[in-house]
Here is the input.
Amino acid sequence: MKILVVGSGGRCHAIVEALSRSPKAEKIYCAPGNAGIASLAECVAIKDTDVEGLLAFAKSNDVELTVVGPEAALAVGIVDRFREAGLAIFGPTKAAAEIEASKDFAKRLMKKYDVPTADYATFTDFEEALSYVKRGTLPTVLKYDGLAAGKGVVIVESMEEAEATLRDMLLDSKYGEGRVVIEEFLTGEEFSLMCFVAGDKICPMPVAQDHKRAYDNDEGPNTGGMGAYTELPFISDEDHAYAMQYIMQRVADAMVKEGTPFTGVLYGGLMKTPNGIKVIEFNARFGDPETEVVLPRLKSDAVDLFMAVARGEQPVAEWSNQATLGIVLASKGYPGGYDKGVVIRGLDGVTSKVYHMGTAIKDGELVTAGGRVMIVVAEAPTLIEAQQKARADVNKIECDNLFHRTDIGAKAFK
Ligand code: AMP
Ligand code: GLY
Here is the structure.
C-alpha cells in the first residue's frame, strides 16, 4: 500500500516509523517531512495546509491511505476534501476538529453530556469578563478561544494580571478577534490519554505525561513539550477505566449524537484532581511529544489500525509492556528566539530511538533547524531504566546550541 503522511515534526517521524514497521507499507511519502523522516519515507515539498496540492499528489501517486499529523491541516478541512474525492484519510473532519479548535465548543459539549471538567463561562465583552473574574476566586484560568498553539492559556494570580490579560485577549486583539473562556483553577497531576476513535468505536493508547515548561522543576516558559514518558504509576487501572467510560467514550458518543462523528485520534488532556479525573482540554490529533513515546510500544500492524479508523471500523491495538521515556533537545533560547544551522554530531553511538523535530542537512551535515530539534526515546522494562538510557544517550549527542531537561519522568518517582 502507498501511504501519505502529512506533517513534519517528531510526531510525524514517529507515525512514519510505526507505519514503516508494517509489511503492508510498500511506499511512504511524507509532506513536507524533515531530515530524519527522509531515511524512512520519500519527502515531498508540499505544505501541510496545501489541501489541493496534497490531494493532487495523492491521486497521481495512487496513495491509498493518508494520515494527518498537524492541527493546521485539519482546521482547513483536509479530511472533508479527501473524503469528498473518495480517498481514505485518517483524521477528523473540520467540524469534528472543533473539539480542539474551539474551547467554547468543547466546554459546551462536555456540559451537555455531563463530562467532568472545570466550571467555566465564555465572554466576548471585556467589562463583563472582568466583573466575572472579580466575583470569583484567584487563581483563575483565562483561555483565549481559538487555535493559539498552546499560548492562549494564562493562569492569573492577581486582579491586575487578570485585567491586563483580558485587555490583551479582548481589547488589543494581540491574539486576534476572539472570545475568552474563564475557567475554575484545578489542581492535580496532568496526563494525556489518546484514543483511536472511529465514531463510537474507540481504542485507548497507553497514557503518557508531557512536560510543557522549558526548564527543570516545571520552571520557565511554556513550550511545545520538552519530554514525555509512558507508564504513570499515579494512574491506576480504576482511573483509566473511569476516564475511558465517563470521558473518552462519552465524548465519542456525544460527537456521533451531535452529527459530527469523530475519526482519528482524540487526545484527552486530563487531570487527576482531589475530586476525580477532569478534562483540561481535548485535541483532535496525536499529541506531541506523547506520540513519540506511545507509538514505539505499538505491537499491532499500524497500517491495519490506521486503515480501520479511516474506514470507520473498530480499531484494535496491542501494546508492549515496555516503559518509554523521551527527552527533547531544543535550541538554546527556545521558546524565544534561537540560532539555526548549528552542527549536530555523535548520533552514531545512540541506541535509543531519535525522532527529528527540527533538523536539516547542510553541506552534508546534520544541523539544527527549529526550536525543538530532536527527541531521544528510550524503551526499557522499567521507567527508571528507560530514564537512565535516555539520559545516557542524550549525553552522547554533541551540539553547541542545544539544551534539555534533566528531570523528565521525575513525577513518576515522587
Ligand atoms: P490547555 O491549552 O487548555 O491545555 O492549557 C494549557 C495548560 O494550562 C494545561 O496543560 C494546564 O497545565 C493549565 N491549565 C489549563 N486549564 C486549567 C485549569 N482549569 N486549571 C488548572 N490548570 C489549567
Ligand atoms: N502535548 C500537548 C499537545 O500535543 O498539544
